[in-house]
Amino acid sequence: MFIELTNISRTFGQTQALIDINLKLEVGRIGLLGPNSAGKSTLMKILLGLLPPSSGTGRVLDHDLATAGVELRRAIGYMSEADALVPGLQGAEYVALAGELYGMARKQALRRAHEVLTYLDLGDARYRKLEEYSTGMKQRLKLAQALVHDPPVLLLDEPTSGMDPAGREGMLDLLVTLGKEHKKAILLSTHLLGDIDKVCDAVIILHHGRILCQGPVQQLCQSRHDRYKLQIQGEPNALLDDLRLEGVQVLHDNGRGEYRVQVPTGWTSQAFFKLAQVHEVVVRGLQADNEDLEELFHRVISENQSQAPS
Amino acid sequence: MPTLLHYRSWQGEFHSPWWSVWPIARVALGTLLRRKLFWTLYAFGLLLFFMFFFGTFLLAWAESLVSGTQPQLARFGDLGRVLTTNIRRALVILEGSRDTFQYFFAYQGGIVIVTLSLVGAILVGNDFTHKSLGFYLAKPINRWHYILGKCLAVFIVVQMMTTLPALVLYGQHAFDDWDYLLNVDHFTANDGKGPAGIALLLAVVGYGTLLSVVLSILLVAAASWMRRTMPLIMVWISAFFYLRLLANILVDGLKYDVRWRLLDLWNSLTLLGQGCLGYAAEEISPKPHPEFWEAGLMLIGVCTVCLIYLNHRTRGVEIVR
Fold this sequence. Notes:
The complex is a heterodimer. Chain A is of the alpha/beta class.
């Protein structure tokens, strides 16, 4: 079992940051999703053994949260959202320092720092001062210090924050590789739904300190029988006008002949082909368009808000 | 991101968290030793050391010069006699007795205080300013390992500026006269200048260690509170100048109870340091002064408050915003 939490609550004075959190997660790539002040950071701190829960019990990789702070953190590589760099150090020194703090001997830590930095494509920058690193490089450096001791678990707080699109893609590919090929258990806390979509196979949605839903993304997203992804070749305008007359809503047009449409009740997919034939366009693709993570997130949050007492 | 190189797993033994104390101290020291500011201040400290180191030779030469020109100086009446007396008095201070080390620690301590106020932000404050504290605390160590590592860094800086040069001075006198090293009564047998030999060596190490321990705890607490250099200087000036001034006004000016002098932390430190060097209470100025045990209790109290503050300050609150 990766994470097992039973009735975990945490209060700060009058504020309840976490309320009765119950979680049972197997090893995998798990996304922690929630708006600001949802309790993600508090949950991360509790999982790191840095903050004791006000009530409840929990285990991470069979380490008791209440008693195994040091052993727990040795099994975890933590990448914080804040820069958390030590000014004046070079990249290799910084990662080696992290290794030493994890308990590695100095020589081993230095050797391993060079290996990890090379793996993360920071080999050329390893002797550069941390102040000279770009945002993307800092993010990879923070991942390097979390990986230096080869932990079974990675807790990542906003790992793509501030990165350009190419850098972000690279970072996400890397996380997928670490999870799939190197069997790292990953807990990824982020605001970016795309990051979770790409990396994680399960998600936890946290809101106002409560878990609103958890489980595999595929299972949580509802199957929709009223929405399709439609690809057409040819002049689309006449066809789209006719579709609208029939009550079909065009939700999204990517400008390259791909559309997301919502159909009225009683609509059959055959109707697309009939209309296409009339307007002499070719239907190149038609598939059911299920709910995505963004829709799931908004649905869960809005359901929770509508249920909450005013 | 370019094609990834192969990821290699690592299997090895992990040391106990106590092993992390030295890397924390080493990195803090390394950051400090790369600064020109530190070496400039250290050079000032060395000037003082060289004054003590070469002062013996200089004054011996000056005395021989003055003695050789006694007839000419006689023309100036008392001035010649005063000059000779002063040079002889200075020579006595520099002869390697407890007086030498008491003066050395007192002067060098001033430079140490100035240095610490200027480098505190580099050694400790930056961890709070740049949120590096989160980097340390997310590792398998607890906050006391971190605090100990930072205190060790400051301890080493103070030792480099006080005990180390004091030991060189001791070595200079020991090489000059082996009896100084071997005979504890080297001075007392002649004119009662306190111990020599191993007893003096231990006293010097004790004085330096006392300064280093107390100042390291005070600095780590003050720097984690103030973080930046200017506010830290203000706190430092308040602790070591204004409180001293206030204590002097209360005790010497308004004739309040002598225990008010305990407000002066530097006085408590030097009082205990001189106790280490074997001074009796009545030999120590300024007079009146509190008892040794009172000064010790005051310093223990201040250090305890600092440690309680550090314990509170270094909770994992900064790990995640």
